[in-house]
Write the structure tokens for this entry.
Amino acid sequence: MLLIRCPYCEEERPELEFRNAGEAHIARSANIAGESDDDFEKFFFIRSNPKGIIHERWRHMHGCARFFNAVRDTVTDKFIMTYKAGEPKPSKLPEISNEVVAK
Amino acid sequence: MAKAATKKATTVATLSVERRPALAGRTTSAPAVKIEVLPPAERISLRAPEASVAALSKALGVTLPKKPKTSASKAGRTALWLGPDEWLVIDEAGNDPLADCAGVSALHSAVGISHRNVAIAVTGAGAAATINAGCPQDLSLDAFPVGACSRTILGKTEIVLSRNAADAFRVECWRSFSDYVFTFLSEGSRDAAV
Amino acid sequence: MSGAFRIPSAGRLSQAKTARFSFDGQSYAGIEGDTLASALLANGVHLVGRSFKYHRPRGILSAGAEEPNALVEIKRDAARKTPNVRATVQELYDGLAAQSQNRWPSLSFDVGAVNDMASPFFSAGFYYKTFMWPKAAWKSLYEPKIRAAAGLGVSPDQPDPDHYSSRYAHCDVLVLGGGAAGIAAALAAAETGVRVILADEQAEFGGSLRFESGARIDGQDGFAWAQGAVAKLAAMDNVRVLSRTTAFGYYAQNFVGLVERVSDHLKAPGHELPRERLWQVRAKRVVLASGAIERHMVFADNDRPGIMLAGAARTYLNHYGVAVGKNVGVYTANDSAYAAAIDLKKAGVNVAAIVDLRDNPTGPVIDEARALGIEVNFGRAVIRAGGKLRVSSMTVQPKNGGGERTIPVDAILMSAGWTPSVHLFSQSRGKVAFNDETKRFVPGIYAQDCVSVGACNGTDGLSASLDEAYAAGAKAAKDAGAKTARGMKPKVDASESWSRGMLGAAPGAGSDTTVKAFVDFQNDVTAKDIRQAVHEGMRSIEHVKRFTTNGMATDQGKTSNMHGLAIAAETLGKPIPEVGLTTFRAPYTPVTFGAIVSHARGPLFDPTRRTAIHPWAEAQGAVFEDVGQWKRAWYFPKAGEDMHAAVDRECVAVRKTAGLFDASTLGKIEVVGPDAAKFMELLYTNPWEKLEPGRCRYGIMLREDGFIYDDGVVGRLAPDRFHVTTTTGGAPRVMNHMEDYLQTEFPHLNVWLTSITEQWAVIAVQGPKSRDIIAPLVEGIDMSDEALPHMSVREGKICGVPTRLFRMSFTGERGFEVNVPADYGQAVWEALWAEGQKHGAAAYGTEAMHVLRAEKGYIIVGQDTDGTVTPNDAGLDWAVGKKKADFVGIRGMARPDLVAKGRKQLVGLKTKDPKVVLEEGAQIVEDPKQAIPMKMIGHVTSSYWSQNCGRSIALALVAGGRGRMGDTLYVPMPNGVIEVEVTGMVFFDETGGRLNG
């Protein structure tokens, strides 16, 4: 079970309290009704599904109930950082690797 | 609303019906812990932006906490921080917090949930161990001190957990989950002396 | 005397505490503190089981959790039968009853052993190659036969009467393994005051100190020191000491699963103790002190009972006071077996010879063995063992060939060296590194906040291990936040040390295909099988593993993996690191389902939700159905009524007089704030801005894709307050959906959502007499049609308690839904029921509710829709605000496929024979005479007998359905084709006049 830092609760909490909510930073058009088929397809269907760093939405469902954003590495399954909903995509990611070579 | 309601009110005899709280009076004991269903209380779910907190605190007579996982109590009324704009206000003194908020013009949402929740007290040296049978949070006094509160998980359901003393917790859950929660806590208490 | 092989002067058990036990019906005496294995050996019993594939007689290989052979069934009573218990782990208690497995009719004469003779047919990959043809036979013939013939123990066939508990725990430093290193690490951490958990899988702490007679720490015998140190730890408030506790899985972010065996070792556990306790521990730092496991020598017939690991024989002697034989041989490739030989010799056991594969080893143990008069042979191999049910001899030959010599023995102690237990480290996603000099994999790159110490880290010798562990424990505590350290490092006064050894097949493994030199005892994998796998083209060790099943048994190859890898590497002609190690996965040792399930059984399997009115319905004899987690009254049978009769009566009563229905499970959300209407406009297809307070509207919610997600009646209580209802099953996801949009797409709106599903009990009163029933109990609400028209809502009082009274109908009759605070639900229901009785009202359940709404063509989301139905498909275009610029789903709904011709549309169906009731889900075709597979143009979504209509009715999704009114379609069923006519969806009161009737 992962520990996920909730940016609203300001601490790490057990994964059981959270729910993933898909990729982040996919803006819904203010004029969605006027969107072309191609644009709607991109908005609604197309996801990056990267190997490595992904920006995704989580909800602290059984905690503060807030949606927030997280940066996670899909290879190591490690959360690199989390930030509040509405905040911009972080331009720089913190270094979190704790890989240590044994003596 | 009120106007429409009273316009052509038909007169009827004033009736009264019995209140039947879920699990009323249910209690169980294990060597290190006691679990009891608490009597009904008045409750509201209060939602408000930062700017309204002062006015609401004043109206409620208790300062709404702004720090995550904390609560504030005064005169039988407790405000639990559940989220950045969300508080659970519990009144055990028989006063109605919904009425107190009604006069507040500052932006907010107060919704009565007195009957939605059931409260269960878990007390004794094994209280934390009992809850940890199904709650994944760290309940040591460092991580979850007296006065701490949090919405979280117990087994397969959601609860609101608060700590009244080192060995006393209050577990709030929705009415229809109370049987499950009580049974779970009873089961957990069997092994809480370890 | 508890067994002829017990040596009174040896071991640590108190001879006074005798425990009787039985094995295969034969009664024996053991001593408290014994394992089943040590007690059997004390009685001279080596033969304890038959192997998995060849049914070869097997004995006890080890003295610990790595045991591949000695698997037995422990039976306490009819329901408490545990198969595949390792005799080396099971502690003895008075009255223990064990049985051997995988043999018939008896352990010493097993018919299945014919497999051993037929073994040329059972070689590696045998199952894959042999049972390929005919394909159909796999399922019907081969698989059941193979499963019956193979397998280990037999599953218990009764519900498990024991209970299991679970606990989430948090600590600063978690130490896994309670040998010298683990204890030292725990001491160092605990002395700083941080929270420490120390766990060990054995009943007693000490690890290899159990057998290392040469270890002395702080002036004491090593094992005695361990007991003292653990007692000291256990007395500290900040330390939890867990014995009999196996760390079975190491997961992300230092989350470790442990199972504590609480009562399997007790004679009469009683009902209060759980059988096992699952610990789910989150640690800031983990110290791995999991030790090392000795490897066997791979030579012909190395599986004969009586052949065991040297360290195990030494444990049986030094801890349990048991000699594993009277005349033992030793076969080794490293020093450690010498220590076993020396201890046994000193205890009076004859050591026939030590056979050492090494050419000219030197060292104190070798000198000591010689000084004790033990025959030591260098550069020689044991090429085969004699005997069948028990080893009787070992045949020795110079390792490069030459004359053979057969030495009679009754046990062979073997040691090919020690494999560091990197299982948990590997599970933590750490990467191991191969040390070419010592020929072992040790922790390389760490992936989590943990550290390995002692033998599992490849650190040789007690002194070095203790130093390393103590420092690591102190550092882990410091890293976890400890401020001070005030302990004293234990001092090692004397220790043993060895390393090296060999990997792979010894010369005695032979190349002859008839030789069985076992690599993996539990899965019966021989050196030849591994070589064959390579010859047949397997290159990756992962392929070799799966082809041969090496390391895939319940022991997870603890003794076999390295040998298998080395043989594969040798056959491939590649260095070991290039061939690679297979991945270690959880669980480290088997975990019971009971421990994993823990509390989640019976009433705690899943929450069962009941409404406030449930007790009344139960008392009335209602039959309930499960709707999600809810129990809902399905129908209320009177004496002599079946479901059909009850539902017919309930349906008729509602339309004739009135019915009461418990609608409390409907989801309810209070939407409050100045922007409430704006928010509703965005979340529902309907317009809301102009809905007046006091009025209601049927709302449809779409997902962004344009498909119907939920529906429900929404009442506007005030300009800034809506009372929204959702489907019962949809309540949680609708709330999540609304919160998602509110928080992330429309956060500028000043509005908040609160679930009030459980605040209000809801009593639907429906039927021509509904108003007459409610009115006498209501205060402050004008119940006239003018003041309270259909689709309106008022707040007032009923029976003296607050109510939100909705005038609405899901039956097509005049109807109300009375919301009252939940704790008053039952009392208000009873009051309404009493009123209803005056008018002949009935209580109705969910089945009648379904029929009544279908008679009116009202849809149920999730039954008549399936996530691919648009409002237009459902005939609900009228509920979509045409002038709205935005709502969730507005764009999705306009996608080309969703507006294309020929989409499936909801229509009514009437069977030509009114008595025939269609099956829900039945497929619909245009031409029943067409060839199979027929072209299906739709399916039945709802179908009932309608007593009110005097015929069956159905709703269906049919391609281009609304253009087929009056057409005849067909529903092919196994016993004939049913003719149906396409109709409108309303079967009863088409004009809707009854809403005000």
